[in-house]
């Protein structure tokens, strides 16, 4: 079973940037479509970005123009570059397969202060 480990979160001021990493185990990584999700306190987990095995990307309206997603198959890693962060971006960020959700990792916490 594929396992995911997120890292790179932290505390930043509004307008700042962070780069999150999602390290995945498993030999099928290069063939998998991988998504980033986030969950803010009191809210449901939402999918905000994904990248397909061929490198096509999707960004939700809430992050489009500020975030970017890319992957390095040689490192079994997907990245989320976050810029122009807003207070409302504060959440725990997770990654997982886009189509077949497996066990969730611990996530990485992003806090944004005004």
Task: Produce the secondary structure layout.
Blueprint lengths: L3 E4 L2 E4 L4 E7 L9 E6 L6 E6 L5 E3 L7 E6 L4 E6 L8 E7 L10 E6 L1
Parallel strand pairs: 2-10
Antiparallel strand pairs: 1-3, 3-8, 4-5, 4-9, 5-6, 7-8, 9-10
Biggest beta sheet summary: 6 strands, mixed
Determine the strand fraction and express it as a percent band: over 45%
Structural class: mainly beta
Rg over CA atoms: 13 Å
Question: Can you tell me about this structure?
Answer:
By secondary structure, the chain is mainly beta. A six-stranded mixed sheet has the order 2-10-9-4-5-6, with no helix packed on it. It has a four-stranded antiparallel sheet with strand order 1-3-8-7, with no helix packed on it. It contains no helices and ten strands.
Question: What structural keywords apply?
Answer:
single chain, 114 residues, mainly beta, six-stranded mixed β-sheet, four-stranded antiparallel β-sheet
In short:
The chain is mainly beta. About 0% of the residues lie in helices and about 50% in strands.
């Amino acid at each position: 079973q594929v396992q995911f480990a997120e890292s790179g979160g932290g505390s930043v001021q509004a307008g700042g940037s962070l780069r999150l990493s999602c390290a995945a185990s498993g030999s099928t990584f290069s063939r998998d479509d991988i998504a980033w999700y986030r969950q803010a306190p009191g809210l449901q987990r939402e999918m905000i970005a994904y990248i397909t095995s061929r490198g096509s990307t999707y960004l939700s309206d809430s992050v489009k123009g500020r975030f970017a997603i890319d992957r390095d198959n040689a490192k079994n890693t997907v990245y989320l570059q976050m810029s122009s962060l807003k207070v409302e971006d504060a959440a725990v960020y997770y990654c997982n397969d886009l189509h077949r959700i497996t066990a969730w990792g611990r996530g990485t916490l992003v806090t944004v202060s005004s």
